[in-house]
Specification:
The chain has helices at about 5-25, 45-60, 65-70, 80-90, 150-155, 215-225; strands spanning about 40, 95, 105-115, 125-130, 145, 155-160, 170-175, 185-195, 200-205, 225-230, 230, 240-245. With about 250 residues, it is of the alpha/beta class. It has a five-stranded mixed sheet with strand order 2-7-3-12-11. The longest helix is centred in the N-terminal third of the chain and has 21 residues, at about 5-25. The chain is globular, with a radius of gyration of 18 Å.
Length: about 250
């Protein structure tokens, strides 16, 4: 994959400044009540992480977003906003692999189409996808990350994709677990931006989720969340298919 190295470096520099500013503005430990459900957000990148980021930039010139996410060298960088910006910068494929082979959980495939109000496909839409681990944790240290939009900004299992000419996408990952101490259903966060359309933040739910009771189904309908039934691909892997509608700007 061809990538403009200068452009990526500028993007990373800006992202680093923004990330450091956000970290400085976050509440201190003394200001936030203690709760073992939460872990602090990542700190300012260490010298070692900065060296890893330099390697990630070089690697990104030759690989896909999925390959960068699968690279074990950069696993510790996943919560860092600057690394996430790098993944976003090279997200050109409609197929995204989030979970590594050694990630615990049930392997699933999420397929879908992003469409306009007339159900015509929207090609070139950029989607940010993130979710919990099989035990319902966004971090490897606790269920949630304690900061402004902590889970969205730092979730360990994440990725970016771009829809193809038919508006299609595919995500290969594990089925996320529901939050501990919560009755909310299992879900995958799915945020979309596309030229000419309003940004969309929604959740992909699973029809076979035991937590998806009548009350939660009504909530999903009210909030515009998307539910898909379980199917199987040709290899017998659980597959869920969604249609995600955008609104014209």
């Amino acid at each position: 994959m061809e990538i403009n190295r200068r452009q990526v470096l500028v993007t990373l520099a800006v992202a680093t400044i923004v990330a450091l500013s956000a970290l400085a503005a976050q509440p201190t430990e003394a200001q936030v009540p203690s709760d073992d459900q939460f872990t602090p957000p990542p700190s300012v990148p260490t010298d070692r992480e900065l060296r890893l980021l330099a390697s990630a930039v070089e690697t990104a010139r030759h690989v896909s977003a999925s390959a960068l996410l699968q690279d074990t060298r950069f696993r510790s960088l996943h919560p860092q906003p600057v690394f996430r910006q790098l993944v976003k910068a090279i997200a050109r494929d409609s197929v995204l692999t989030i979970a590594r082979d050694d990630e615990p959980g049930t392997r699933i495939i999420v397929k879908g189409i992003i469409a306009d109000p007339s159900l015509s496909p929207v090609p070139g839409a950029l989607a940010y996808v993130y979710h919990t681990s099989a035990k319902g944790w966004y971090s490897d240290k606790a269920a949630h990350i304690r900061s402004w939009a902590g889970d969205a900004r730092h979730a360990r299992l994440f990725g970016y994709l771009t829809t193809d000419a038919q508006g299609s996408f595919e995500v290969r990952t594990i089925k996320p677990g529901g939050y501990p101490r919560s009755s909310l259903p299992q879900h995958i966060h799915f945020e979309v931006e596309a030229a000419g359309y309003l940004p969309l933040a929604t959740e992909l739910l699973f029809d076979d989720d035991p937590r998806l009771n009548p009350e939660q189904r009504e909530r999903a309908k009210r909030e515009g969340l998307v539910i898909a039934a379980r199917g199987l691909d040709t290899n017998g892997k659980p597959t869920y298919r969604y249609v995600i509608g955008l609104t014209k700007a």
